[in-house]
Design goal:
By secondary structure, the protein is α+β, with helices and mostly antiparallel strands. It has three domains: 8-108, Acyl-CoA dehydrogenase/oxidase, N-terminal domain (Butyryl-Coa Dehydrogenase, subunit A, domain 1); 113-219, Butyryl-CoA Dehydrogenase, subunit A, domain 2 (Beta Barrel); 223-379, Butyryl-CoA Dehydrogenase, subunit A, domain 3, CATH 1.20.140.10. It is built from eleven helices and ten strands. The strands form three sheets. A four-stranded mixed beta sheet has the order 1-4-5-8. A four-stranded antiparallel beta sheet has the order 2-3-7-6, with no helix packed on it. Strands 9-10 form a two-stranded antiparallel ribbon. A hairpin with a 4-residue loop joins strand 2 and strand 3. Helix 1 (8-30) packs antiparallel against helix 2 and helix 9 (303-329) packs antiparallel against helix 10.
Amino acid sequence: MPVFALEPERAEWCAQLRTQAARHLLPLAEKGEPGHVNRPLVAELGRLGLLERLFTSGALDLCLMRESLARVCTEAETALALQGLGAHPVHAHGTPAQRERWLPRVAGGSAVAAFALSESGAGSDAAALSLAARPDGPGRWRLTGEKCWISNAPEADLYTVFARTTPDAGSRGVTAFLVPSDRPGLTGSALEMLSPHPIGALHFDDVPVTADDVLGETDRGFRVAMGTLNLFRPSVGAFAVGMAQAALDATVGHTARRDAFGGRLKDLQSVAHRVAEMALRTEAARLLVYAAASAYDDGDPDVPRRAAMAKLLATETAQYVVDAAVQLHGARALRRGHLLEHLYREVRAPRIYEGASEVQRGIIAKELYAAHATTTEESAP
Protein backbone atom coordinates (compact mmCIF):
# COMPACT_ATOMS: atom_id res chain seq x y z
CA MET A 1 0.00 0.00 0.00
CA PRO A 2 1.64 3.30 -1.04
CA VAL A 3 2.30 5.77 1.77
CA PHE A 4 0.66 9.14 1.21
CA ALA A 5 1.11 10.48 4.76
CA LEU A 6 3.38 9.41 7.57
CA GLU A 7 1.99 8.14 10.85
CA PRO A 8 2.53 10.59 13.76
CA GLU A 9 5.18 8.29 15.26
CA ARG A 10 7.24 8.25 12.07
CA ALA A 11 6.85 12.02 11.60
CA GLU A 12 8.10 12.55 15.14
CA TRP A 13 11.04 10.22 14.52
CA CYS A 14 12.01 12.26 11.45
CA ALA A 15 11.93 15.44 13.53
CA GLN A 16 14.17 13.76 16.11
CA LEU A 17 16.59 12.73 13.39
CA ARG A 18 16.85 16.32 12.17
CA THR A 19 17.52 17.50 15.71
CA GLN A 20 20.20 14.86 16.21
CA ALA A 21 21.79 15.82 12.92
CA ALA A 22 21.94 19.50 13.86
CA ARG A 23 23.28 18.89 17.37
CA HIS A 24 25.64 15.97 16.95
CA LEU A 25 26.44 15.35 13.29
CA LEU A 26 26.73 18.72 11.59
CA PRO A 27 29.54 19.96 13.92
CA LEU A 28 31.57 16.84 13.11
CA ALA A 29 30.84 17.15 9.40
CA GLU A 30 32.13 20.71 9.39
CA LYS A 31 35.45 19.48 10.78
CA GLY A 32 35.87 16.84 8.09
CA GLU A 33 38.19 17.05 5.11
CA PRO A 34 36.44 16.94 1.72
CA GLY A 35 37.33 13.84 -0.26
CA HIS A 36 38.19 11.77 2.79
CA VAL A 37 36.27 9.45 5.10
CA ASN A 38 35.19 11.34 8.20
CA ARG A 39 35.67 8.58 10.77
CA PRO A 40 34.52 10.63 13.79
CA LEU A 41 31.27 11.30 11.91
CA VAL A 42 30.84 7.61 11.07
CA ALA A 43 31.53 6.70 14.71
CA GLU A 44 28.89 9.19 15.89
CA LEU A 45 26.35 7.70 13.50
CA GLY A 46 27.13 4.39 15.17
CA ARG A 47 26.85 5.83 18.68
CA LEU A 48 23.43 7.28 17.88
CA GLY A 49 22.25 3.85 16.72
CA LEU A 50 21.56 4.98 13.17
CA LEU A 51 23.97 2.58 11.46
CA GLU A 52 22.45 -0.40 13.25
CA ARG A 53 19.06 0.61 11.85
CA LEU A 54 20.44 0.03 8.37
CA PHE A 55 20.18 -3.69 9.10
CA THR A 56 16.98 -3.73 11.15
CA SER A 57 14.73 -1.31 9.26
CA GLY A 58 12.77 -1.62 6.05
CA ALA A 59 13.13 0.42 2.89
CA LEU A 60 10.70 3.12 4.01
CA ASP A 61 12.56 3.79 7.25
CA LEU A 62 15.83 3.86 5.30
CA CYS A 63 14.31 6.54 3.07
CA LEU A 64 13.11 8.52 6.07
CA MET A 65 16.56 8.42 7.64
CA ARG A 66 18.26 9.57 4.45
CA GLU A 67 15.75 12.34 3.74
CA SER A 68 15.82 13.63 7.33
CA LEU A 69 19.61 13.69 7.55
CA ALA A 70 19.99 15.25 4.10
CA ARG A 71 17.80 18.21 5.09
CA VAL A 72 20.36 19.11 7.77
CA CYS A 73 23.71 17.47 7.00
CA THR A 74 24.40 15.85 3.64
CA GLU A 75 27.76 14.56 4.84
CA ALA A 76 26.09 12.53 7.59
CA GLU A 77 23.47 11.26 5.15
CA THR A 78 26.11 10.12 2.69
CA ALA A 79 28.27 8.47 5.36
CA LEU A 80 25.24 6.51 6.57
CA ALA A 81 24.16 5.52 3.07
CA LEU A 82 27.62 4.33 2.04
CA GLN A 83 27.87 2.13 5.12
CA GLY A 84 24.56 0.56 4.16
CA LEU A 85 25.38 0.16 0.50
CA GLY A 86 28.75 -1.45 1.20
CA ALA A 87 27.57 -3.78 3.96
CA HIS A 88 24.04 -4.70 2.85
CA PRO A 89 25.34 -7.58 0.67
CA VAL A 90 27.07 -8.96 3.77
CA HIS A 91 23.87 -8.61 5.77
CA ALA A 92 21.69 -10.17 3.06
CA HIS A 93 24.01 -12.78 1.56
CA GLY A 94 26.94 -13.26 3.93
CA THR A 95 27.79 -16.39 5.84
CA PRO A 96 27.34 -16.41 9.62
CA ALA A 97 31.11 -15.95 9.99
CA GLN A 98 31.16 -12.98 7.61
CA ARG A 99 28.23 -11.30 9.34
CA GLU A 100 29.65 -11.93 12.80
CA ARG A 101 33.02 -10.45 11.88
CA TRP A 102 31.90 -7.33 10.04
CA LEU A 103 28.35 -6.23 10.75
CA PRO A 104 28.86 -5.27 14.43
CA ARG A 105 31.85 -3.14 13.43
CA VAL A 106 29.98 -1.47 10.58
CA ALA A 107 26.94 -0.85 12.80
CA GLY A 108 29.16 0.54 15.54
CA GLY A 109 30.96 2.88 13.17
CA SER A 110 34.43 1.40 13.70
CA ALA A 111 34.67 -0.16 10.22
CA VAL A 112 33.97 1.64 6.95
CA ALA A 113 32.32 -0.29 4.11
CA ALA A 114 32.26 0.23 0.34
CA PHE A 115 30.37 -1.14 -2.67
CA ALA A 116 32.79 -1.85 -5.53
CA LEU A 117 30.81 -2.45 -8.71
CA SER A 118 31.70 0.29 -11.23
CA GLU A 119 34.68 0.22 -13.57
CA SER A 120 36.01 2.81 -15.98
CA GLY A 121 34.64 0.78 -18.88
CA ALA A 122 31.58 -0.62 -17.10
CA GLY A 123 29.74 2.07 -15.21
CA SER A 124 26.14 2.13 -16.39
CA ASP A 125 26.59 -1.26 -18.10
CA ALA A 126 27.34 -3.17 -14.91
CA ALA A 127 27.05 -6.56 -16.61
CA ALA A 128 30.06 -5.68 -18.77
CA LEU A 129 32.52 -5.54 -15.87
CA SER A 130 35.95 -7.01 -16.51
CA LEU A 131 37.67 -7.35 -13.13
CA ALA A 132 38.89 -10.92 -13.50
CA ALA A 133 38.65 -13.62 -10.85
CA ARG A 134 41.01 -16.29 -12.19
CA PRO A 135 40.94 -19.80 -10.65
CA ASP A 136 43.82 -20.52 -8.29
CA GLY A 137 42.92 -24.00 -7.12
CA PRO A 138 39.66 -25.45 -5.73
CA GLY A 139 37.60 -22.68 -4.15
CA ARG A 140 40.34 -20.09 -4.72
CA TRP A 141 40.70 -17.15 -7.12
CA ARG A 142 43.03 -14.25 -7.85
CA LEU A 143 41.47 -10.84 -8.60
CA THR A 144 43.19 -8.78 -11.29
CA GLY A 145 42.02 -5.47 -12.69
CA GLU A 146 40.57 -2.18 -11.48
CA LYS A 147 37.46 -0.62 -10.05
CA CYS A 148 36.68 3.06 -10.45
CA TRP A 149 34.29 5.68 -9.01
CA ILE A 150 34.05 3.71 -5.75
CA SER A 151 32.68 5.73 -2.83
CA ASN A 152 34.77 5.48 0.36
CA ALA A 153 37.73 4.12 -1.63
CA PRO A 154 40.59 3.84 -0.99
CA GLU A 155 39.97 4.38 2.75
CA ALA A 156 37.34 1.70 3.46
CA ASP A 157 38.04 -1.30 5.66
CA LEU A 158 35.99 -3.78 3.65
CA TYR A 159 34.76 -3.89 0.06
CA THR A 160 31.92 -5.75 -1.58
CA VAL A 161 33.68 -6.50 -4.88
CA PHE A 162 32.03 -7.82 -8.02
CA ALA A 163 34.35 -9.79 -10.29
CA ARG A 164 34.02 -11.95 -13.38
CA THR A 165 34.44 -15.63 -12.54
CA THR A 166 33.14 -16.90 -15.91
CA PRO A 167 34.41 -15.09 -19.04
CA ASP A 168 32.00 -13.99 -21.76
CA ALA A 169 28.94 -14.85 -19.67
CA GLY A 170 27.55 -11.36 -19.18
CA SER A 171 25.64 -10.93 -15.95
CA ARG A 172 25.60 -14.70 -15.37
CA GLY A 173 29.34 -14.95 -14.77
CA VAL A 174 29.80 -12.42 -11.97
CA THR A 175 30.57 -13.28 -8.34
CA ALA A 176 30.40 -11.02 -5.28
CA PHE A 177 33.34 -11.21 -2.88
CA LEU A 178 33.88 -9.67 0.54
CA VAL A 179 37.43 -8.29 0.38
CA PRO A 180 39.09 -6.71 3.44
CA SER A 181 41.31 -3.73 2.64
CA ASP A 182 44.46 -5.41 3.98
CA ARG A 183 44.51 -8.19 1.38
CA PRO A 184 47.89 -8.38 -0.37
CA GLY A 185 47.82 -6.86 -3.84
CA LEU A 186 44.92 -4.47 -3.10
CA THR A 187 45.81 -0.81 -3.42
CA GLY A 188 43.87 2.32 -4.27
CA SER A 189 44.02 5.99 -5.11
CA ALA A 190 41.71 8.92 -4.41
CA LEU A 191 39.92 10.77 -7.20
CA GLU A 192 39.21 14.49 -7.03
CA MET A 193 35.53 14.87 -7.78
CA LEU A 194 32.87 17.58 -7.70
CA SER A 195 31.08 15.81 -4.87
CA PRO A 196 32.72 16.33 -1.46
CA HIS A 197 32.50 12.72 -0.27
CA PRO A 198 35.41 10.30 -0.81
CA ILE A 199 35.61 8.54 -4.17
CA GLY A 200 38.52 6.54 -5.50
CA ALA A 201 39.88 3.77 -7.68
CA LEU A 202 40.93 0.30 -6.56
CA HIS A 203 43.76 -1.69 -8.09
CA PHE A 204 43.79 -5.50 -7.82
CA ASP A 205 47.10 -7.23 -8.47
CA ASP A 206 46.50 -10.97 -7.97
CA VAL A 207 44.47 -10.34 -4.81
CA PRO A 208 43.71 -13.73 -3.22
CA VAL A 209 40.10 -14.66 -2.39
CA THR A 210 38.54 -17.97 -1.43
CA ALA A 211 35.14 -19.58 -1.16
CA ASP A 212 34.96 -18.15 2.36
CA ASP A 213 34.88 -14.66 0.81
CA VAL A 214 32.00 -15.32 -1.59
CA LEU A 215 28.77 -13.44 -0.91
CA GLY A 216 25.86 -15.54 -2.11
CA GLU A 217 26.71 -18.03 -4.84
CA THR A 218 29.47 -18.23 -7.41
CA ASP A 219 28.43 -16.70 -10.74
CA ARG A 220 25.28 -15.26 -9.08
CA GLY A 221 26.82 -11.99 -7.92
CA PHE A 222 24.81 -9.86 -10.32
CA ARG A 223 21.71 -10.76 -8.33
CA VAL A 224 23.47 -9.53 -5.19
CA ALA A 225 24.25 -6.24 -6.90
CA MET A 226 20.78 -5.69 -8.33
CA GLY A 227 19.07 -6.69 -5.09
CA THR A 228 21.15 -4.14 -3.23
CA LEU A 229 20.44 -1.43 -5.79
CA ASN A 230 16.70 -2.15 -5.77
CA LEU A 231 16.74 -1.40 -2.03
CA PHE A 232 18.97 1.66 -2.21
CA ARG A 233 17.66 3.33 -5.36
CA PRO A 234 14.49 4.66 -3.69
CA SER A 235 16.63 5.90 -0.81
CA VAL A 236 18.89 7.77 -3.27
CA GLY A 237 15.63 9.46 -4.21
CA ALA A 238 15.04 10.20 -0.53
CA PHE A 239 18.48 11.80 -0.30
CA ALA A 240 17.55 13.96 -3.28
CA VAL A 241 14.20 14.89 -1.73
CA GLY A 242 15.98 15.94 1.47
CA MET A 243 18.29 18.23 -0.49
CA ALA A 244 15.36 19.65 -2.46
CA GLN A 245 13.46 20.33 0.75
CA ALA A 246 16.46 22.07 2.29
CA ALA A 247 16.78 24.27 -0.81
CA LEU A 248 13.04 24.98 -0.79
CA ASP A 249 13.04 25.91 2.92
CA ALA A 250 15.95 28.28 2.36
CA THR A 251 14.22 29.85 -0.62
CA VAL A 252 10.90 30.41 1.14
CA GLY A 253 12.73 32.13 3.98
CA HIS A 254 14.91 34.22 1.69
CA THR A 255 12.14 35.41 -0.62
CA ALA A 256 9.91 36.26 2.36
CA ARG A 257 12.62 38.53 3.83
CA ARG A 258 14.37 39.96 0.81
CA ASP A 259 13.38 43.52 -0.17
CA ALA A 260 13.12 44.10 -3.92
CA PHE A 261 11.31 46.53 -6.21
CA GLY A 262 9.40 48.24 -3.42
CA GLY A 263 8.24 45.06 -1.72
CA ARG A 264 9.42 41.56 -0.93
CA LEU A 265 10.64 39.03 -3.46
CA LYS A 266 7.71 36.77 -2.61
CA ASP A 267 5.32 39.48 -3.85
CA LEU A 268 6.60 39.11 -7.40
CA GLN A 269 4.34 36.66 -9.20
CA SER A 270 7.21 35.16 -11.17
CA VAL A 271 9.04 34.39 -7.91
CA ALA A 272 5.98 33.06 -6.09
CA HIS A 273 5.09 30.78 -8.99
CA ARG A 274 8.64 29.47 -9.18
CA VAL A 275 8.60 28.65 -5.47
CA ALA A 276 5.23 26.94 -5.87
CA GLU A 277 6.66 24.81 -8.69
CA MET A 278 9.62 23.86 -6.50
CA ALA A 279 7.26 22.76 -3.72
CA LEU A 280 5.02 20.86 -6.13
CA ARG A 281 7.86 18.86 -7.64
CA THR A 282 9.46 18.13 -4.27
CA GLU A 283 6.23 16.74 -2.83
CA ALA A 284 5.53 14.66 -5.93
CA ALA A 285 9.02 13.16 -5.75
CA ARG A 286 8.64 12.46 -2.03
CA LEU A 287 5.39 10.56 -2.58
CA LEU A 288 6.88 8.45 -5.36
CA VAL A 289 9.88 7.61 -3.17
CA TYR A 290 7.64 6.58 -0.27
CA ALA A 291 5.49 4.48 -2.60
CA ALA A 292 8.52 2.67 -4.04
CA ALA A 293 9.94 2.00 -0.58
CA SER A 294 6.60 0.69 0.64
CA ALA A 295 6.39 -1.59 -2.40
CA TYR A 296 9.81 -2.99 -1.51
CA ASP A 297 8.74 -3.61 2.09
CA ASP A 298 5.56 -5.32 0.89
CA GLY A 299 7.43 -7.63 -1.47
CA ASP A 300 5.82 -6.16 -4.57
CA PRO A 301 7.19 -7.84 -7.72
CA ASP A 302 7.13 -4.46 -9.46
CA VAL A 303 9.97 -3.09 -7.30
CA PRO A 304 12.55 -2.62 -10.12
CA ARG A 305 10.21 -0.29 -12.05
CA ARG A 306 9.05 1.58 -8.96
CA ALA A 307 12.60 1.97 -7.64
CA ALA A 308 13.81 3.28 -10.99
CA MET A 309 10.93 5.75 -11.20
CA ALA A 310 11.57 7.01 -7.68
CA LYS A 311 15.29 7.56 -8.22
CA LEU A 312 14.75 9.16 -11.63
CA LEU A 313 12.05 11.63 -10.61
CA ALA A 314 13.60 12.55 -7.27
CA THR A 315 17.13 13.18 -8.53
CA GLU A 316 15.96 15.16 -11.55
CA THR A 317 13.60 17.13 -9.29
CA ALA A 318 16.35 17.94 -6.81
CA GLN A 319 18.55 19.24 -9.62
CA TYR A 320 15.72 21.57 -10.73
CA VAL A 321 14.86 22.74 -7.21
CA VAL A 322 18.42 23.46 -6.13
CA ASP A 323 19.16 25.27 -9.39
CA ALA A 324 15.99 27.37 -8.98
CA ALA A 325 16.94 28.12 -5.38
CA VAL A 326 20.36 29.37 -6.48
CA GLN A 327 18.72 31.58 -9.11
CA LEU A 328 16.33 33.15 -6.60
CA HIS A 329 19.08 33.74 -4.04
CA GLY A 330 21.34 35.42 -6.57
CA ALA A 331 25.11 35.78 -6.24
CA ARG A 332 25.15 35.09 -2.50
CA ALA A 333 24.28 31.44 -3.25
CA LEU A 334 27.47 31.05 -5.28
CA ARG A 335 29.73 32.06 -2.41
CA ARG A 336 31.84 29.25 -1.01
CA GLY A 337 30.31 27.97 2.22
CA HIS A 338 26.73 28.97 1.44
CA LEU A 339 24.18 26.17 1.90
CA LEU A 340 23.10 26.34 -1.72
CA GLU A 341 26.66 26.36 -3.02
CA HIS A 342 27.15 23.16 -1.07
CA LEU A 343 23.90 21.62 -2.31
CA TYR A 344 24.69 22.63 -5.88
CA ARG A 345 27.85 20.51 -5.75
CA GLU A 346 26.11 17.64 -3.97
CA VAL A 347 23.01 17.42 -6.13
CA ARG A 348 24.66 16.60 -9.45
CA ALA A 349 26.14 13.19 -8.66
CA PRO A 350 22.95 11.28 -7.70
CA ARG A 351 21.68 11.61 -11.28
CA ILE A 352 24.65 9.42 -12.29
CA TYR A 353 25.55 6.96 -9.53
CA GLU A 354 23.64 3.74 -8.79
CA GLY A 355 22.35 3.91 -12.34
CA ALA A 356 22.24 7.14 -14.36
CA SER A 357 18.92 8.73 -15.26
CA GLU A 358 19.14 7.20 -18.72
CA VAL A 359 19.59 3.75 -17.18
CA GLN A 360 16.52 4.28 -15.01
CA ARG A 361 14.45 5.15 -18.08
CA GLY A 362 15.70 1.96 -19.72
CA ILE A 363 14.69 -0.11 -16.68
CA ILE A 364 11.23 1.48 -16.61
CA ALA A 365 10.66 0.79 -20.31
CA LYS A 366 11.96 -2.79 -20.04
CA GLU A 367 9.64 -3.54 -17.13
CA LEU A 368 6.66 -1.98 -18.89
CA TYR A 369 7.15 -4.03 -22.05
CA ALA A 370 7.78 -7.20 -20.05
CA ALA A 371 4.49 -6.67 -18.21
CA HIS A 372 2.75 -5.98 -21.53
CA ALA A 373 4.11 -9.21 -23.04
CA THR A 374 2.96 -11.23 -20.02
CA THR A 375 -0.49 -9.71 -20.16
CA THR A 376 -0.74 -10.37 -23.89
CA GLU A 377 0.24 -14.04 -23.43
CA GLU A 378 -2.24 -14.54 -20.62
CA SER A 379 -5.10 -13.03 -22.62
CA ALA A 380 -4.35 -14.99 -25.80
CA PRO A 381 -6.95 -17.64 -26.68
